[in-house]
Fold:
Amino acid sequence: MERTLVLIKPDALKRDLVGEVINRFERQGLRLVSIKMLRLNESEAMAFYAVHKGKPFFKELVDYMSSGPIVAMVLEGEGAIGRVREIMGATDPNEAKAGTIRGDLGINKTENTVHGSDSKESAALEISFFFSQYDLKKGER
Ligand code: IDP
Ligand code: MG
Structure:
């Protein structure tokens, strides 16, 4: 059983799409382990996206991700990391296939509705950024 971190980004909360996004994962058999709503400040957003430091879109990304509340959640399932990435679709909503979250709901390459961890290593790191072992334990069922 694999676990991954998903963020529902500010554009989705602005448009009240939280339930819609979670439902798309649940329908595919991915189960919630833990969930919270929060707002990142600028330095927290910089830390979360540290791998992108120095890229041309970094400042825009950090400003956007700290512009409003987000929802962070841990999802669990067989091959959860790859399956979440498939359900999300390509980074740019204009290139994402119809039926994917970004293809159907994304606005542009920055405001693309969701984040999902891209490897086992980033999933472990990103889950620990938002959730304690105690939070994760409470989600067992
Ligand atoms: P991913 O979210 O599909 O894994 P990454 O390349 O890891 O894509 O980029 C992280 C986030 O940075 C994207 O989800 C998007 O919000 C933003 N981003 C990536 N590339 C661009 C770009 O070229 N212009 C503007 N924003 C971008
Ligand atoms: Mg990424």
Notes: The radius of gyration is 14 Å.
